[in-house]
UniProtKB/TrEMBL annotation:
Catalysis performed (reactions): a 2'-deoxyadenosine in DNA + S-adenosyl-L-methionine = an N(6)-methyl-2'-deoxyadenosine in DNA + S-adenosyl-L-homocysteine + H(+)
Gene that encodes the chain: fokIM_2
Keywords: Methyltransferase, S-adenosyl-L-methionine, Transferase
Keyword Metal-binding attached: no
InterPro entries: DNA_methylase_N6_adenine_CS, MeTrfase_D12, SAM-dependent_MTases_sf
One annotated GO biological process: DNA restriction-modification system
Name of protein: site-specific DNA-methyltransferase (adenine-specific)
GO molecular function, one term: site-specific DNA-methyltransferase (adenine-specific) activity
EC nos: 2.1.1.72
């Protein structure tokens, strides 16, 4: 760690606090201590709305005149849920992926955790020599494919160690460690941002360095991992925000390595991309998308329905083509109430070759009729 002499007297006094005390202080940047930490937005994810959240929340707030409860039906990266926290007293977030759920538990979940303990564990991991580690499930399946072989051994070793430590960890600590692992390996993955395939060329070795995530710890968040169309029947809120996976890209397949790491059931894997048997497949990625969407909209018990949509229906890429059209979205929403459409030019994260430069992000807002 650098000398504290470079900082002002007041800062030096603050830096004498324990890491846990500093971390809990809102007026101190923990990076001054030399610990880099991941924020929620620090990972690659298809369809990430992080850069759009100011626009989305401003429109929702202006259109509704304010709201107290916010239901993020397909939360994904949770960037929209995070953006809604200053506006609402209650946030309900849902996603069917186990990896997204553990990330929500780490950033938003309730429960106690000791940052000093977690930092010590991370320091231990970062001092492991991968040459001393035996082969394991992760390196056997993913080594020299999605990750360099040495890093693959280290990732598998760390995942096993987290599981061994589970009895001595709180649920929040367990979630933070797994999430920190996910965010850290995202930085060195031999991919274009997902795990549907890996880059077939020699992998440049970048030593894996584990960094902790920076939990947000709001007191207003409820976390679910359920089928959205079923959960919708049991939630009452002012606003429902919907951003389903409209195209054929099944997120459970695109992020199968994260799912594998979190569940740690070590299934048999198949194909070049080393995927498990298909599970958690979304109807919104199939020709049944319009039917599933109409069913969801009919079940929502909310005052306002907000739908994000990007106009990729005519995309040249088959996997990028939306399974439901703008006209279908509008028609289904108008069955529930008066609907307005807002648009924004936005070039979002795209892992493929499709040019989305002229595509727009659309926001439908429906005021549900009585």
């Amino acid at each position: 760690m650098e000398s504290l002499s470079q900082y002002s007297k007041d800062v030096r006094e603050e830096l004498k606090l324990s890491l846990q005390e500093v971390y809990n202080r809102t007026d101190i940047d923990v990076t001054l201590l030399g610990y880099k930490m991941f924020d929620l937005e620090s990972r690659r994810y298809i369809g990430n709305k992080a850069k759009l959240t100011p626009w989305i929340m401003n429109i929702i707030n202006e259109h509704t005149g304010g709201f107290e409860s916010f239901f993020d039906v397909f939360a994904g990266t949770a960037s929209v849920s995070k953006a809604a926290i200053p506006y609402a007293k209650r946030i309900i977030m849902n996603d069917f992926l186990s990896s997204n759920n553990i990330i929500y538990q780490a950033f938003f979940g309730s429960g106690t955790y000791d940052m000093n303990k977690l930092h010590s564990i991370i320091e231990y991991y970062n001092n492991i020599n991968p040459d001393t580690i035996e082969d394991n499930y992760f390196s056997d399946n993913f080594g020299d494919k999605f990750f360099d072989y040495k890093n693959s051994k280290l990732i598998g070793h760390i995942r096993e160690d987290v599981e061994r430590r589970k009895v001595a960890l709180t649920h929040k600590e367990y979630a933070i460690l797994l999430t920190s692992l996910i965010y850290s390996i995202d930085k060195i993955a031999n991919t274009v941002g997902h795990f549907d395939a890996y880059i077939k060329k020699n992998i440049l070795y970048h030593p894996l360095s584990i960094q902790l995530i920076r939990p947000l710890d709001p007191q207003c968040v409820e976390i679910f991992r359920e089928d959205s169309n079923i959960l919708a029947e049991n939630i009452t809120a002012d606003v429902a925000y919907i951003d389903p996976p409209y195209n054929s890209r099944q997120y459970s397949r695109f992020y199968h390595i994260y799912e594998n790491l979190v569940t740690w059931e070590k299934p048999e894997l198949f194909g070049v991309a080393m995927k498990p048997k298909a599970q958690n497949m979304s109807a919104y990625c199939t020709s049944s998308a319009p039917v599933a969407f109409r069913d969801l909209i009919s079940k929502l018990n909310v005052k306002y329905i907000v739908v994000s949509y990007n106009n990729t229906y005519e995309s040249k890429s088959g996997s990028s083509k939306n399974k439901i059209t703008l006209e279908q979205i509008k028609s289904i929403l108008e069955e529930r109430g008066t609907t307005k459409i807002y648009d924004c030019d936005h070039r979002y994260f795209n892992a493929g070759k499709t040019n989305f430069a002229k595509h727009k992000e659309l926001l439908f807002i429906t005021e549900v009729g009585q």
